[in-house]
Amino acid sequence: MPSRGRVGRAKRPDSTHASPEIGAPSSASSPTSHSGSSSWSPPDRATWLGILESFNEQSAELDRLRSEVSELKRGWSSFENLFRTSPVPMMEQDYSEVELWMGTLRNRGVPHVREVIGDDIDEIRRIAAKIRVVAANPAAETAVGLPLEDLIGPIDPSIVNEGSQPGWLNQLSAVWERRPLARASFMAATADGQTYDAESILSAPVVDGEPDFSRAVFSVIDVTPHRNKEREMAGIVEAKNRFLASVSHEIRTPLTAVLGFTRLLEEREASDDDRKLMISSVAEHAQEMSNLVEDLLVAARADMQQLDIVDVKVDLLAELEATLKAGGSFTRDVRVQSTTSAPYAMADPSRVRQILRNLLTNAERYGGDQVTVNVSRSKRNLFVDVMDDGDGLPGEDWERIFQPYESAHLATGRPGSVGIGLAISRQLAELMGGSLQYNYHRGLSVFRLKLRSAGR
Question: Cβ of 298: how many Cβ atoms within 10 Å?
Fold first, then answer.
């Protein structure tokens, strides 16, 4: 009985041997089901278990890879959604052409890209055109002022505006220095010229320890409200510093005079006329300090809403006369006139005198030589106009002078103003149901105090 051949490829017949007859059985093709010895046998149990374990491991690895791909898809979808819907303007930018250009600079021995650019806005525009915008979100369209189809591609040099040099220099320096992150503050502008304060971030992914600027993300934020608040706070701090310096000066000046005259009176004999003059000066300077302290205290109480105002019938001409009799440099050569025989208002007498004192002091310090106070009335209101023939204020200062710690100008040789007298005077007028305004008309500066009429 012929033996079975090994399962596998049959040998080619030797060309020197005769071919078998057609239909004759071949040992290489003998059926394996024939009885007798065989070279193949089914795997044993351990082998089957090994094959099964390998299959399970490969299946688990396939499941893991599928899960990672799914996670990547979800992550990319989340990033894409964030990119598209973010209120922060973002653009994906490709700096490849810029890097090639920088490579030529390095070959020429240029130490830094800033050496080539400087502050030349035209040079920055030329280099910016080498940057390609690959993608942009809708917020970027608003920030730049161009539709998406105009944003994609090389950057339009027209968006490189005057004032944005710090931002562009920072970006290009980051590419030159291979820094993956760069921040900048600058004045940005839309394509139609609308400017705004901006903060920008350029971020490049790091691949094998090196930033990939072909896929950098540039984001820019409009921080104009924040900057305005900072400028406002800086202005307040500056005004406060001026206020403290002015208070120190205004208190020290009369205090020095008071101390000086009292020392003279104490240390040496003086004629009656000299004594009267020195005592008068002491009283006048002490009154100045008292007036300043009163303004400061009233301002503090008003800020804390703890200022009490009485509402009684007040004779404005009588209060004006009392103010002038109190003495002080601001009371000299003041002309008083009235066009009403019933100068009665509903107000607080002490606060009326405080307002009149501040207005007369302001006229004496910053006004002309001729100071006139006119009292008039309408059916419902009483008016006190304090006028002088000095230089008027420009229109933009008419309201600013009523802000705390503000002063429109300083007269030559005069001490700095605390800048609180006019502010507290307007506040007092409003607390009494009136108002205080400034106007410059026909060569006269006019401060008008309006109060409610008390009838005749």
Answer: 19
